[in-house]
Amino acid sequence: MLRRQFLRVAGGASAAALGGCAAQGVAPSTTAPFDDTAMLRSGPVTFESTTVLHPVRARPNRVFKVTVCTRPFRAAGPRIEAERVRDKLVVHNYGHGGSGWSLSWGSAALAVRLALTDGARDVAVIGCGALGLTAAVTAQRAGARVTIYAKEFPPDVRSSSATGVWSPDSRFALAANMTPALEQRWAAMCRTSYAVHQSYLGVAGTPVEWIDRYVLSDAAAAAPQETPSGAPDFAAGLLRLTPELRRLAWEELEPGTHPFPVPRVRRDMGLVFNVASLTRTLLGEFAAAGGHQVRQEFRTPADLARLRQKVIIDCTGYGARALWRDESVVPVRGQLAWLLPQPEARYCLYYRDVGMVSRSDGIILQHDSEAMGFNDASTEPDPSEVAYCVQSIADLMARMQRG
Ligand SMILES: Cc1cc2nc3c(=O)[nH]c(=O)nc-3n(C[C@H](O)[C@H](O)[C@H](O)COP(=O)(O)OP(=O)(O)OC[C@H]3O[C@@H](n4cnc5c(N)ncnc54)[C@H](O)[C@@H]3O)c2cc1C
């Protein structure tokens, strides 16, 4: 149907253009400047659209893996600051909660600036997750020679188990800690990250892409957002600080223009990070710029003395809790159930606390609300959570197909 409408509109426009040439009996010139005044006079072309979506096959036997990991949350927001440890300058860059991939480039920019202030050109990065990789590449781009030291490398790092969506405001800090200075820092990180992520669009392997996202609601009108009972009071509404990034605003979809069996549907486009591909792209860039990787665990800060570099960027994520005895890093457990990929069904949706993100390497289902997983470091998969997610999406798809 969409195709028919498009052909009708496009066909009409091109027929008019051809007619103009024919009436004047002039062959189109290849050298004459393009004249779009007629097109501008006719105004914008509008047409109704109906969203066509392929159903997701949500069945237990299509779940090919379940991953569980912890977000490194700090009530005061990520720790990005320099500290002297004996003869080393250590720049901490950890504690990014549920927004580590999203804010990674902006955080790297701040950390690398602190690391290179004294003109250092030989830098050690500890950690090879989202924060370590982006800090390493950023330091190389600033002219430094970089070695990454880490206990684990991708895909065995926690960052590899992220959902992979642009979520710069997710579990960033507690509301009570959001000072104007922290808000400014968040907004700066958000802007830098957003810009750098754009530079990975269209790159081989599609490490970053835009995807349609639908938020489904059983209530016909917008209801005030309430913090679920038992949930920590995470900072909310941060996106208001970067209004220029909200150009792709939500649109309310009129009933009849979408296939969802609920009274309210909103849509926008979101950035999705295909984490496996993004990680490989970054590792490739790092190696191409002469970077080295060394597998090494640091059990105490004194172990840093073994490094030849005088400047260290510490991107140990949840590992910082043990290494620095920093109990401000709190685990927030998150579990993902992975359905077999469906290239024809590439969209995201959120309904009744279940999120679905269709990536090229699998369709991720997640039971997610602010109240879940706080201060829970367990990494045992919970089969009941998997069953709940699969059943919720299966029910929704069945209702969609019934119409
Ligand atoms: C379920 C889930 C979904 C998520 N979804 C998203 C999302 O959609 N978008 C988003 O932006 N964020 C998301 N996040 C958050 C994001 O994944 C984290 O903020 C991010 O991965 C943290 O990265 P990191 O590099 O700090 O830590 P890690 O990935 O844990 O990397 C730490 C590195 O440090 C090394 N290390 C640690 N301790 C030591 C030591 N003592 N010695 C040597 N090496 C050490 C480790 O081996 C590893 O290489 C999600 C998180 C979870 C759990």
What attributes does this structure have?
8 helices, binds flavin-adenine dinucleotide, single chain, six-stranded mixed beta sheet, 403 residues
Provide structural commentary.
This protein is α/β, with parallel strands linked by helices and 403 residues long. Helix content is 28%, strand content 24%. It is built from 8 helices and 14 strands. The protein has helices at 2-24, 37-41, 100-115, 130-141, 180-198, 275-288, 320-323, 383-402; strands at 63-74, 79-85, 88-94, 122-126, 145-150, 208-217, 251-253, 264-273, 292-295, 311-314, 329-339, 348-351, 354-359, 362-367. The strands form 2 sheets. An 8-stranded mixed sheet has the order 1-11-14-13-12-6-8-7. β12 (348-351) and β13 form a beta hairpin. The longest helix has 23 residues, at 2-24. Mean pLDDT is 87; it is low at 1-34. The structure holds flavin-adenine dinucleotide. The site of flavin-adenine dinucleotide has 41 residues, from β1, α3, α4 and β11.
Q: Give the spatial strand order of the biggest sheet.
A: 1-11-14-13-12-6-8-7
Query: Using DSSP, what is the number of strands?
Result: 14
Largest sheet: 8 strands, mixed
Structural class call reads: alpha/beta
Taken from the alpha-carbon principal axes, the silhouette is: globular
Low-confidence parts: 1-34
Strand-residue fraction? 15-25%
Count of individual helical segments: 8
Bound molecules: flavin-adenine dinucleotide
What's the quaternary structure here?
Answer: single chain
Relative helix content: 25-40%
- Radius of gyration over all CA atoms, rounded: 25 Å
What distance lies between the first and last C-alpha atoms, to the nearest angstrom?
A: 17 Å
Order of helices and strands: HHEEEHEHEHEEEHEEHEEEEH
Tell me, rounded to a whole number, the average pLDDT.
87
